[in-house]
Recover the amino acids of this structure.
């Protein structure tokens, strides 16, 4: 049987406000979950400042390393929105005013509201295709394997949902979780044994600490579902054999 | 007058659970704010998986590029906690059982609770010094300019607060914010003009969208406080000259 393909993605969060701690990113978790359901694994995320050369270098480095690159931030109407120009340069080209983007923006804004700053949002790299923005209309764009999205979470996330059907995914990684009410060190051997016994299954150990209810969530992840469920049955049996109650989870 | 020094940091978030979207990172914003108050600017953050070679490559790349590197995640007692070994290898060394770390853990755990898995948490790279963990005792460590912290936010953040006084900061970047109840495109010219007129001031434009209260926060940032306040006065005057009401902020 052919192995299902592994399809990878990187996410570049462009924005001084995230790096300064003024704003908490909310887009990585959303993107990673949505892509995961489509069979695309986010293998790296970077938060970088609004500096043209940094954007160029980061896009060039990641675009050859993964199947899909996504960026968020810096495609608005103001002086600090430099993403489109930087990405054009990363691909050795320049931006131009895309006629379809102008038409979209003209339709969106009321008479007299389509000012010169907003017109800047119609500029995309030569060779790029537009990505639909169902919230505020100003489109993102795609050039080569790089998908350029807005930074505002409501807009970014709607754009992701619009473009998802156009992406070719590979093997979907599923997860199985069980939670026990004891510390992770007490069951470290069992988890390590299962990780070693099931080569394609990733066993994650996530301790949590709440007043009166500390414990460990064991998260098994893999794209071979039969093997995943076998690993789940194995860890469950190992814990039950030690008399450890499984408090919640996907076990039968 | 000598320019105050610019001191930089990078943050490496190590964890499959952040990349899969299962867990939302909460440490970047905290670290960036705390470091910022100390005069250390976070210039890049990366989220990477629990893969040894990726950790090694990322640490090596960033350690030579910034003044301080911080990592979070992967220093617990289980098989997927590979950060200490990976960072040892990044610096061409190996981990060993640090006697002081053993003593700290022995004091922390009740009789019979200091099991072999927990003992793993006493292993740090040769040449590393320990970083105090006031929450769960298991120490982090520092090797060269790399500070290795826990991933659980409550623990990570307490460790940051413990080590902050030992860090040498540079120029503190302050910010001034004013908020107007109009879209950013309408005041794009004024913001661009101020950015151009004040070379060392970064002018950020952050639109927000709420039912009935959309607007723009203009955030000025810089370490030259006199210049920062002059830039604030300038943008305020430019907006008021156009009859635009400043709804909230640091203006007089």
């Amino acid at each position: 049987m052919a192995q299902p393909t592994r399809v990878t993605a990187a996410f570049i969060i462009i924005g001084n406000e995230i790096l300064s701690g003024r704003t908490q990113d909310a887009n990585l978790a959303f993107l990673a979950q949505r892509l995961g359901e489509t069979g695309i694994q986010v293998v790296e995320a970077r938060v970088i400042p609004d500096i043209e050369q940094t954007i160029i270098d980061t896009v060039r480095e990641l675009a050859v390393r993964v199947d899909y690159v996504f960026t968020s931030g810096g495609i608005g109407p103001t002086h600090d929105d430099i993403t489109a120009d930087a990405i054009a340069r990363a691909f050795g080209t320049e931006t131009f005013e895309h006629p379809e983007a102008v038409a979209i923006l003209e339709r969106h804004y009321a008479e007299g509201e389509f000012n010169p700053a907003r017109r800047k949002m119609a500029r995309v790299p030569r060779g790029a295709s537009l990505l639909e923005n169902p919230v505020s209309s100003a489109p993102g764009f795609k050039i080569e394997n790089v998908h350029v999205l807005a930074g505002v979470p409501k807009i970014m996330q709607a754009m992701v949902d619009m473009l998802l059907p156009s992406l070719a995914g590979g093997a979907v990684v599923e997860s199985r979780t069980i939670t026990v009410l004891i510390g992770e060190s007490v069951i470290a051997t069992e988890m390590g044994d299962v990780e070693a016994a099931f080569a394609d299954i990733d066993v994650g150990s996530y301790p949590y600490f709440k007043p009166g209810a500390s414990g460990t969530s064991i998260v098994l992840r893999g794209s071979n579902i039969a093997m995943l469920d076998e690993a789940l049955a194995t860890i469950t049996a190992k814990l039950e054999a030690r008399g450890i109650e499984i408090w919640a989870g996907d076990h039968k």
The radius of gyration of chain B is 22 Å. Residues 7-166 of chain B form a domain with the Molybdenum Cofactor Biosythetic Enzyme; Chain A fold (CATH 3.40.980.10). The mean pLDDT of chain B is 94. Chain B touches chain A through 64 residues (CB under 8 Å).
